[in-house]
Amino acid sequence: MSYPNKPSRPAAPRRRFTRRKGCRFCGDKTLKIDYKEIRTLRYFVSERGKIVPRRISGNCAIHQRKVTEAIKRARNIALLPFTSAHNVD
């Protein structure tokens, strides 16, 4: 039943759903998260030295926690930098 004097609401913008990235560690069981494997951990650190969040990296919660712990351990023994080296003029 329609009402002739009822004001209509503006249509909500449609959300675009993108396909979620799968966790690379769940997909490939041979990959290990280790603080000594810097090449693997570099993917999860931004240019500024920040740890990339789950929604960007595509990791599941369990593996994101393990990656974060490995990055922090690698930083403590100077395998990874805490921040990026940038020139201050």
TrEMBL record:
Q: Which NCBIfam families is this protein grouped with? A: S18 (TIGR00165)
Record's family?
Answer: Belongs to the bacterial ribosomal protein bS18 family.
Oligomeric state and partners? Answer: Part of the 30S ribosomal subunit. Forms a tight heterodimer with protein bS6.
> Cell division: present as a keyword of the record?
no
Q: For this UniProt record, give its keywords in alphabetical order, as a comma-separated list.
A: Ribonucleoprotein, Ribosomal protein, RNA-binding, rRNA-binding
- Entry keyword rRNA-binding: yes
**Regions that span the bilayer:** none
Q: Name one GO biological process term.
A: translation
Q: What is this protein called?
A: Small ribosomal subunit protein bS18
| Organism domain of life | Bacteria
Q: What does this protein do?
A: Binds as a heterodimer with protein bS6 to the central domain of the 16S rRNA, where it helps stabilize the platform of the 30S subunit.
